Amino acid sequence: MTTCNLRRLTSRSATEEAIVAALDGDGAVIIEDLAKGALANDVTEQLSPWFNDTPPGDGLFFGRRTVRFGGVITKSTASHQMCLHPLVLSAVEKILLRSCTSIQLNLSQAISIGAGEPEQILHGDDEMWMAPRNGTEYMINAMWALTDFTKENGATRIVPGSHKGPVRRMVDESELTYAEMPAGSVVLWCGSAMHGGGANTTKTNRSGVVMSYSLGWLRQAENQYLVAPPDVARTMPARLRDLIGYQIHEPNLGHFEGQDPRLLFEDGALARPLPFRDHLPQSAKEELIAYYSQVAAE
Ligand SMILES: O=C(O)CCC(=O)C(=O)O
Ligand SMILES: [Fe+2]
């Protein structure tokens, strides 16, 4: 397997094309300083009660000296700017819309790796779905740094190029890259890329927030309808509601009483029974029209 270092873009040089090329080519990419102004600090501040009160994880995979919690989108309104970052979203869509009609939020999760935490086992995040890859990319994760990420404090370990190969737990140190980056930067990786949290050999925490996006027809890792039930979702930006899953994935996936769940947020739209309707991509509509005109002609 050929190895390479990760491409490192900046908020100035990053374009959708450059991000997509790096993800396709290497399986991951770093974009330095993409969070504007005080965004990383604002998110940290809004999440601080949970960083302070959440006990460390329980389990070898999630780590026993790592504080981790979900539902970041409901705990920090500032995090919406990360989740909905236009450049990240458009690059992620460019890749994932090859295999779905709309993408979704797989999870939003804060991860604070504490002093003395050993390295996390290398894994592909898409291993949670029992499906063969056959070249399909199921997910892309965006890890936003809330503190500086260094090799010493547990910067994410990534094996560039591994998204094109099988799951491999053990690799030579020379194949690893550490996603070192200043707070406010983001590292994106494909669900198929081998990676894991780094060991924290310092005395301070390495904190970040993961916004994970997946194909719109998969089961979400984090149950987004419990994170944001309709009354919570109602207060959120429409694009975020869509990502949570309050929208149709064509054809006919995720409907409510035959309706697009977006109707939930239009006053009175679901007040009385409505005709059950098709939610189809254009190609399927055309196929149906052709089929029924043929049947009518016979
Ligand atoms: O904390 C990190 O750097 C990565 C964590 C991770 O990959 C995971 O928990 O799936
Ligand atoms: Fe992971």
Can you put this structure into words, describing what you see?
The protein is of the alpha+beta class and 298 residues long. It folds into two domains: 7-244, Jelly Rolls (Sandwich), CATH 2.60.120; 261-297, no CATH class. The protein contains nine helices and ten strands. The chain has helices at residues 16-26, 39-53, 72-75, 80-83, 86-96, 224-227, 230-233, 238-244, 282-297; strands at 7-10, 28-32, 66-70, 103-113, 139-145, 157-158, 177-178, 186-190, 195-196, 206-215. The protein has a seven-stranded mixed beta sheet with strand order 1-2-8-5-10-4-3. Strands 7-6-9 form a three-stranded antiparallel beta sheet, with no helix packed on it. The structure holds 2-oxoglutaric acid and fe (ii) ion. 2-oxoglutaric acid is lined by residues 111, 113, 120, 125, 143, 156, 195-197.
Protein traits:
3-stranded antiparallel beta sheet, binds fe (ii) ion, binds 2-oxoglutaric acid, 298 residues, 7-stranded mixed beta sheet, Jelly Rolls, alpha+beta, 2 domains
Annotate the secondary structure layout.
Elements: E1 7-10, H1 16-26, E2 28-32, H2 39-53, E3 66-70, H3 72-75, H4 80-83, H5 86-96, E4 103-113, E5 139-145, E6 157-158, E7 177-178, E8 186-190, E9 195-196, E10 206-215, H6 224-227, H7 230-233, H8 238-244, H9 282-297
Parallel strand pairs: 1-2
Antiparallel strand pairs: 2-8, 3-4, 4-10, 5-8, 5-10, 6-7, 6-9
The protein binds 2-oxoglutaric acid (AKG) and fe (ii) ion (FE2).
Fe (ii) ion (FE2) is lined by residues 123, 125, 195.
